[in-house]
Amino acid sequence: MHILIIGAAGMVGRKLSAALAAAGQVGGRQITRLTLADVVAPAPVEFAGGMETATADLSAPGAAASLVAARPDLVFHLAAIVSGEAEADFDKGYRVNLDGFRLLLEAIRHEGGKAPYVPRLVFTSSIAVFGAPFPEAIGDEFHSTPLTSYGTQKAIDELLLNDYSRRGFVDGIGIRLPTIVIRPGKPNLAASGFFSNILREPLVGQEAVLPVGRDVRHWFASPRAAVGFLLHAAQLDTARLGWRRSLSAPGLSATVGEEIEALRRVAGERAVRLIREVPDEKIAAMVAGWPRNFEARRARELGFMAEASMDEIIRAHIEDELGGRIGL
Amino acid sequence: MHILIIGAAGMVGRKLSAALAAAGQVGGRQITRLTLADVVAPAPVEFAGGMETATADLSAPGAAASLVAARPDLVFHLAAIVSGEAEADFDKGYRVNLDGFRLLLEAIRHEGGKAPYVPRLVFTSSIAVFGAPFPEAIGDEFHSTPLTSYGTQKAIDELLLNDYSRRGFVDGIGIRLPTIVIRPGKPNLAASGFFSNILREPLVGQEAVLPVGRDVRHWFASPRAAVGFLLHAAQLDTARLGWRRSLSAPGLSATVGEEIEALRRVAGERAVRLIREVPDEKIAAMVAGWPRNFEARRARELGFMAEASMDEIIRAHIEDELGGRIGL
User: Fold this and answer.
1) Chain B residues contacting A, CB < 8 Å?
2) How far is Cα A42 from Cα A145, in angstroms, rounded to an integer?
3) B136 to chain A, minimum CA–CA distance in Å?
4) Does domain A2-178+222-248 have CATH number 1.20.1090.10?
5) Angle, nearest 10°, between helix axes B310-321 and B194-203?
6) Whether ipTM exceeds 0.90
7) Contact check, Cβ <8 Å, B163/A143
8) Global confidence as pTM
């Protein structure tokens, strides 16, 4: 089978590309060709079959059609302008996150108009489709009332994915990813960055800043779990979804205090002492509007799996990013 | 104030235009200018102030900008490709119902970029944003999982209306209208037409066909109530909505049997005998997927009002359409 990954240069895209290349198959079907696309050239991965990289901006005229012309059997769409940038640049957010996705759907539909073609399309949505006020644990039938343009664009994409699937143009499935922890790399300016920073930095002997209280609760999954969701979505029997093609992925609801206790158990008191509490009211106010917990019953029943403890999440990071060793 | 009605040639648009022209004011502000726009030329209404009609297809380049250039204070957007046509012509439905609405929002945003301008925008959404399975009474926080392209387009429009309002580009409010009963005019081919036909036709001595069982339950409001919703939305303090700018309007949950009993009370046995039961399994199957009841708690708390009985709905029709006399 031929797989196209759009957004292959991002953190999840790189891990997914590597996982697919290493497995060589999806759901028992051999991968013969792997196309890695992004707005910046994705790094190639080691792969026994055919591998190619493509630089493409989906929102540019003809770009989607050209990617789809090779009729990939399975398409992952991970690309997005992130929350902060979509809020700062209104036009760019809508152009990439909404129009880009719609152009991809249209390209697939028109390709199918030439000769039968209904690829599986795995779309990464986000818990940002939900906006406060919400219940302590958000259920599978709770409405989408996003409080960001990014969340709005993702919620619209989910509706389009549903309708194009119902009409038989594509075989879509959307996964609302939890906040990814521990995000590898350097601390970034994302408001949610501290959830990762307070674990990742101490594990390599660096200080990290905690801008909110220890009672703040949020919804997490590891990068490894996120890749697992996408691979599971790629081979799921979508008839089980009916016409509700998007799902809140399972995850772990944990407080900052629970993150810190897990860090203490896995890496000791010395690591915990590297967390510096510097309250930031602006960040605290933003975080207060974020989801804290999900039921995710549907996704669990469909076989999606996430970590059951913060200890597991930290250990996954140590294995996948630190070669199994804490760098304290 | 200057009011623009887009979709003024439709059934609700005509009644709304006439109501505004007759009242001469909205929320105590005098109406000085009334612009009636539609894809076909709307009939002028009798109005003491400035009145003009415009033929415009919102999805055509420049059309929205040209309507908005006069900077109306209040815009009603009622125009849509209806459910059946949006399902039959995929491109047309998306072009008019999604792109047309987005072009209107963009035109308002760009007009506001020249000099401050944030008009009130009243948008008619639909209960078609909901798709089965749903609870017996749909609550205000139930998710949108439409089962038609029309419902998808309306759900997307609601998300856009929210985001453009949150960003301060427009002051939007969306009203999800119940099925309108009694729809004036001739029987049409809409699958939902029988809900009106079995009341309207017997009231003028004509036969009507009932294709489903008497236990079928659905969600109704009169044309008079629909106009009332839009007028109330035009003057509501939208701060009370927060960033959840769309509402399920109140209505009446009633069975076909209850429609028939109300007809018997208002117009007698002779009217009821004109209903011919001709079961149609295809229509029955479609109707089984439609909403039956809504809580509409938010809308009621915000002062939206609908009829409390089918008798009232029938009497409103007799007053508004039959000059107060049953034509049996």
Assistant:
1) 90, 131, 141-147, 149, 152, 155-156, 159-160, 162-163, 166-167, 243-244
2) 34
3) 14
4) no
5) 60
6) yes
7) no
8) 0.96
